Amino acid sequence: MKQIKVGIMPLKEFQAYTQAIVTGKHKRKRGEPKIWFNSMASLAQVLSDQNRELLTLIAEEEPESISELARLSHRSQPNLTRTLKTMERYGLVKMKTGERGKKQPSVPYTDILVDMSIRDGAQWA
Q: Rounded to two decimals, what is the model's pTM?
């Protein structure tokens, strides 16, 4: 079982957080999220029910190409390609080049954990 932790942090706080890391004021701790969303709404959009079903389908069926995944998921290929690019940008999907240059999606995690603080980002300033 491989897990990935995602966090929710407003953009301004995330910028302060990354600046604190760059300047050495903060050292990433084990267990801190590796993927960040700037709002619950953006997390909900990327990890919608339909997209979580897509992740499960990819993990279970291991499609050889986006075309095969489109057929399995009953989604249009252009829509699916956009969704996969977004998920790849967040690190939720990996795309590798398979036979004859076909893009093959895979899911590197079995679980996604959500970490969200209710305090402000003053600790990064």
A: 0.84
